[in-house]
Design goal:
The complex is a heterodimer of chains A (281) and B (292).
Chain A lengths: L1 H35 L5 H5 L2 E2 L4 E2 L2 H32 L4 H13 L4 H15 L6 H25 L3 H9 L4 H30 L27 H10 L4 H36 L1
Helix pairs in contact in A: 1-10, 3-6, 3-8, 4-6, 5-6, 6-8, 7-8, 8-10, 9-10
Chain B lengths: L1 H42 L4 H6 L3 E2 L3 E2 L2 H32 L2 H16 L2 H20 L7 H26 L2 H9 L4 H12 L1 H17 L2 H6 L17 H8 L8 H35 L1
Helix pairs in contact in B: 1-12, 3-6, 3-9, 4-6, 5-6, 6-9, 7-8, 9-12, 11-12
The chains are: A mainly alpha (281), B mainly alpha (292).
Chain lengths: 281, 292
């Protein structure tokens, strides 16, 4: 009897911990969406901010985030995928490749603000790109590289070696094997990794703090050498730096809703690709 | 002829892949050298002794990492006190107790929690948790170390749960069966056999979660109040290394002592997170070898 009671207690702590974790997510989403949804409207999405940010929409921040993640993708995807192909398809396993893999894994754990410092020193100052959407996009690209390399390599590893050997035995060159056999088969896995990485980059604030983000720009700039607005930074400024913080709180909640929706949307796309791919096999 | 061209294409692309591989590595290696180079410029001006033993961080003339380091450790260790038991127990529930159906619901919940941008979590620290803490403890300002610790715990939970779950799953079935055959029940097996056997993996999970908490910027910047003094308790406002860089880097003139000082504290943070990651990897590998 005593043992049974004790086990009931065990069961309660385990279940309780799990429920508490779920509760955290519930509180976060409920608070943000219940207070943010009233602020979100078509006008909020497609209008410019007015009256010193106390009214109007967040269109420039949405466009800024889209352009920023676009630059990040353009830079990090080709380099990351090519690097993974080199490591998995060409490089022979050696101490050197082990060191390279270990450093890539560890770079994924480097605090994001340190990437911001590196972006400032390299892109903004040394390469004289200035504080611009290009500098910020490249900085986020660097941050994304280790993730893209690791996830791409994992996807490539899942392709059985017999497939490569079969085409090579038919006299097909290694590049053609990679292009026509390995990559198409690994594509869903690679895509999932890329989308998850990009969704992470879209929500990052610290690396863009001093590489080009601005609280307010006049109009929408489409040129790559100008400062830009971004959703996460907009949320940060509205909730900490604005002169009338209480007044803009609904706008801050609204911005949080748009940001989280964007990130979840990307995650859902990745989830669907992964699910389809799994059932295919 | 075509065969020759195909071979040339093959050779050409091999070089391209090789070159991108090395450019990528050079860029990533550059991060390390940039930190070291700028930190050396700093230590040429300020003695390391003052840097590590002073008690004040004042951007005008006093550069000591101590208050920032203590703040960083304070918040990060606080978050682990909350996240470690919660994360490991949740992982144990997920992998040993939960029915298949519950598992398929809980996995996306944890992925969603991991996907929420840190700035949104920090925002909730200001609007929800801060007022809550100030009401509960009867203090004026709810933006303090406790606030940051709770938020960082929430952010570290997905990392800890995922890796702990893998570690518990990696314990061979034969261990459990042996224990059950000796008459131990399900719960005794879980707490006395499975969890101890998974220990190296659980340590790896905790270390990687800690690494995540130490390096987080936006959450602590928004939720901990940013007073740069050595904290005395969890209700004190603190200012971490990451928050200091975020606050001061935007205004500092290029290549001044202050500029180099911010790179120096970033360098220390880099070394700490590197050490924790390597240690985490060591334990993760030990688990793999043990069960191989």
């Amino acid at each position: 009897m005593k043992k049974k009671l004790l086990h009931l207690f065990d069961w309660i702590i385990l279940l309780g911990s799990t429920l508490l974790v779920c509760l955290f997510l519930g509180i976060i989403l409920w608070d943000i969406f219940s207070k943010g949804m009233p602020a979100v409207s078509w006008n909020f999405i497609h209008q410019y901010p007015t009256n010193g940010m106390t009214q109007g929409g967040i269109l420039p921040a949405i466009i800024g985030t889209v352009i920023l993640t676009f630059i990040t993708t353009i830079f990090s995807v080709p380099f990351g995928v090519a690097c993974a192909i080199y490591l998995n398809e060409y490089a022979r396993p050696s101490l050197m490749t082990n060191i390279i893999r270990a450093s890539i894994r560890n770079l994924a754990g480097v605090p994001s603000i340190i990437y911001g410092l590196f972006g400032l020193a390299l892109f903004v100052q040394s390469l004289r790109l200035g504080t611009s959407v290009l500098s910020a996009g490249l900085t986020l690209g660097l941050l994304s590289l280790p993730y893209i390399i690791t996830t791409t390599e994992e996807a490539l590893k899942r392709i059985p070696n017999s497939m490569r050997e079969a085409t090579l035995a038919l006299g097909v060159t290694q590049f053609e094997t990679i292009k026509d056999v390995v990559l198409p088969k690994a594509l869903p896995g690679i895509l999932t990794g890329i989308i998850l990485t990009i969704s992470r980059a879209a929500g990052e604030t610290a690396p863009i703090l001093f590489t080009g983000v601005a609280f307010y720009i006049n109009g929408i700039s489409t040129s790559f050498n100008q400062e830009f607005m971004a959703l996460p930074y907009h949320l940060y400024m509205l909730s900490t730096q604005h002169s009338s913080i209480e007044e803009v709180r609904p706008l801050a909640y609204g911005t949080a809703v748009i940001l989280i929706t964007l990130v979840f949307l990307l995650n859902t796309i990745a989830f669907i690709i992964r699910y389809k791919y799994r059932t295919q096999d | 002829m075509t065969g020759n061209r195909r071979e040339k294409t093959d050779w050409f692309f091999k070089q391209i892949f090789k070159a991108t591989g090395f450019i990528t590595l050079a860029l990533l290696g550059g991060i390390f050298f940039m930190l070291v180079y700028n930190s050396f410029s700093f230590f040429a001006e300020i003695s390391p002794l003052d840097f590590f033993t002073g008690i004040q961080w004042d951007p005008d003339n006093k550069y000591s990492i101590l208050p920032l380091l203590v703040s960083t450790l304070f918040v990060a260790v606080g978050s682990m006190i909350i996240a470690v038991p919660l994360g490991i127990l949740t992982a144990a529930y997920l992998s040993e107790v939960a029915p298949k159906k519950v598992q398929t619901i809980l996995k996306p919940v944890i992925e969603m929690l991991a996907a929420i941008p840190s700035v949104a979590i920090g925002f909730l620290g200001i609007v929800l948790l801060g007022p809550g803490i100030s009401k509960l403890f009867g203090i004026q300002n709810g933006l303090n170390a406790l606030n940051g610790s709770i938020l960082l715990a929430i952010m570290a939970l997905p990392t800890i749960i995922t890796i702990s779950e893998d570690a518990i799953n990696a314990v061979p079935k034969s261990h459990r069966e042996a224990s059950l055959a000796l008459g131990a029940d399900k719960w005794e097996t879980l707490f006395k056999i499975t969890i101890p056997a998974a220990l190296p993996g659980l340590i790896a999970a905790v270390l990687l979660g800690l690494g995540r908490a130490l390096g987080e910027t936006m959450t602590v910047l928004m939720a901990t109040g940013n007073a740069s003094a050595i904290p005395r308790g969890f209700l004190d406002s603190v200012r971490t290394i990451t928050a200091t860089i975020a606050i001061e880097m935007g205004e500092v003139p290029y290549q001044t002592t202050h500029y180099f000082a911010l790179f120096a504290i970033a360098g220390i943070l880099f070394l700490i997170s590197l050490g924790i990651n390597f240690l985490g990897e060591y334990f993760a590998n030990r688990l793999r070898k043990f069960h191989a």
